């Protein structure tokens, strides 16, 4: 059977999310780098895999999928019987709570994180500037979101309950950037339970293999 | 067994998504109005249900859930076997439903909600529409809808030849784009997107929700 193919780049948050899931499920794969500098992700060959021209795209036999948060759900279901168990939850109610915190990541956590990375890392890489007002307002938004997480994680070891799930995994790439690349580590380290959660999930072997490659290219 | 409770507001797109799903699944529910204009969603009683202070929140026996896209998935799974099937039957179909649900959440909703905020909600609160922001977001939405046009030229619905959560998730925002925002041309100018919109917006489960939304 052909290996799963992941088209993307190891420092792309969404690619990293998928690779982390593949590692957690102990699934072999082939990573096919896409030359973003040459604009290959906007050319017909890549657009036929992902018409939005974003990373990653996954090929599994005849099935092609995009949107990392959909891909990891597919992998967690397909490989339910191997690797880290219960990434999705094991009852309808548990699955619902996993989904809920996955959506929280998508709509409350990701937008301000994305804005911070864009302003502090991506803009300068492209020769632009950092808008400090945008950085400040998004750091504030993220603070308020993390206050909710602090309260949740004071009652629950992981976001969905007492087990590691896709909801925690989904957060890892941007948590990594916050702590390592954009100078906002105190947002995490100043919150006792959020910090303990980050220490725990970032020490997972499946994640550590990904994290070493998450380095933004220099200009 | 107690009825499912939906805490929300009839004008809220996210609430409408959940109500539509309940209708599609033929599930009875209790609607509990959260008085948004008076800030009820930011008060301790509501924050105890949903710490993010947004609507809707659903209570089903011991389970309390927020985030509309998580709620509709829960309902679609719990009530599998009654009403409309919304998730797809095979692993591959379910993956495609999930993919297009994510496209809605990541690529359609952000520009659509910005256009709604700028053209309707902000002026209602005494603010002024920032036309440059509207223009940028219409541009983004145009590019997304071009992709939808291509997809829907090959597939009756987003995930395949069956109506699914992926289509349902688009109903509330598209309703406002076409009515209150007066941006119907974004839809009507695209043959397959237009046919898709006509189809999904004429579903009885949606019409019952839409009639309570402001025009």
Automatic annotation (TrEMBL), chain A:
Reactions listed under catalytic activity: RX + glutathione = an S-substituted glutathione + a halide anion + H(+)
One GO BP annotation of this record: response to toxic substance
Its EC number(s): 2.5.1.18
Keyword terms: Transferase
Keyword Kinase annotated: no
Xref: SUPFAM superfamilies: GST C-terminal domain-like, Thioredoxin-like
Record CDD domains: GST_C_Phi, GST_N_Phi
Pfam families for this protein: GST_C, GST_N
GO cellular component: cytoplasm
Domain GST C-terminal: 91-219
Keyword Ion transport on entry: no
GO terms for MF: glutathione binding; glutathione transferase activity
Chain ranges of the GST N-terminal domain: 2-83
Stated family: Belongs to the GST superfamily. Phi family.
UniProt xrefs under PANTHER family: GLUTATHIONE S-TRANSFERASE RHO
Name of this chain's protein: glutathione transferase
Species for this entry: Pinus yunnanensis (Yunnan pine)
Automatic annotation (TrEMBL), chain B:
Chain ranges of the GST N-terminal domain: 2-83
Gene Ontology process terms (BP): glutathione metabolic process; response to toxic substance
Gene3D superfamilies found in the cross-reference section: 1.20.1050.10, Glutaredoxin
Protein name: glutathione transferase
Similarity remark: Belongs to the GST superfamily. Phi family.
Source species: Pinus densata
EC id: 2.5.1.18
Domain GST C-terminal: start-end pairs: 90-215
GO molecular function: glutathione binding; glutathione transferase activity
Keyword list, A-Z: Transferase
């Amino acid at each position: 059977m052909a290996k799963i193919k992941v088209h993307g780049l190891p420092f792309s948050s969404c690619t990293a999310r998928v690779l982390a899931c593949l590692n957690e499920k102990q699934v072999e794969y082939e990573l096919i780098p896409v030359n973003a500098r040459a604009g290959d992700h906007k050319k017909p060959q890549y657009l036929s895999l992902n018409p939005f021209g974003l990373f990653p795209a996954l090929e599994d036999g005849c099935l092609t999928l995009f949107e990392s948060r959909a891909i990891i759900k597919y992998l967690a279901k397909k490989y339910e019987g191997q690797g880290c168990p219960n990434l999705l939850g094991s009852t309808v109610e548990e699955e619902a709570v996993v989904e809920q915190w996955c959506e929280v990541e998508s709509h409350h956590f990701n937008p301000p994180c994305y804005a911070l990375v864009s302003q502090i890392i991506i803009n300068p890489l492209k020769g632009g500037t950092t808008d400090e007002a945008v950085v400040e307002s998004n750091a504030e938004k993220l603070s308020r979101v993390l206050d909710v997480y602090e309260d949740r994680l004071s009652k629950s070891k992981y976001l969905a309950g007492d087990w590691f799930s896709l909801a925690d995994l989904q957060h890892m790439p941007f948590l990594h950037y916050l702590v390592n690349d954009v100078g906002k580590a105190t947002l995490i380290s100043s919150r006792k339970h959020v910090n303990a959660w980050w220490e725990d999930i970032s020490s997972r072997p499946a994640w550590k293999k990904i994290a070493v490659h998450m380095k933004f290219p220099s200009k | 067994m107690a009825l499912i409770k939906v805490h929300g507001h009839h004008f809220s797109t996210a609430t409408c998504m959940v109500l539509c799903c309940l209708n599609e699944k033929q599930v009875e529910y209790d609607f509990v109005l959260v008085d948004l204009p008076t800030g009820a969603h930011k008060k301790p009683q509501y924050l105890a249900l949903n710490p993010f202070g947004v609507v809707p929140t659903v209570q089903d026996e011991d389970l309390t859930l927020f985030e509309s896209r998580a709620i509709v998935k829960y309902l679609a799974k719990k009530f599998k076997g009654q009403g409309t099937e919304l998730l797809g039957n095979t692993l591959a179909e379910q993956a495609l439903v999930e993919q297009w649900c994510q496209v809605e959440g990541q690529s359609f909703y952000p520009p659509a909600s910005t256009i709604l905020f700028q053209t309707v909600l902000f002026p209602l609160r005494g603010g002024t529409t920032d036309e440059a922001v509207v223009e940028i977001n219409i541009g983004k939405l145009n590019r997304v809808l071009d992709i939808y046009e291509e997809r829907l030229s090959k597939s009756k619905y987003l995930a395949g030849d069956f109506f699914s959560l992926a289509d349902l998730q688009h109903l509330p925002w598209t309703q406002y784009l076409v009515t209150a925002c007066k941006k119907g041309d974004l839809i009507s100018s695209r043959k397959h997107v237009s046919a898709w919109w006509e189809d999904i917006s004429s579903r009885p489960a949606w019409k019952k929700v839409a009639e309570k939304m402001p025009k």
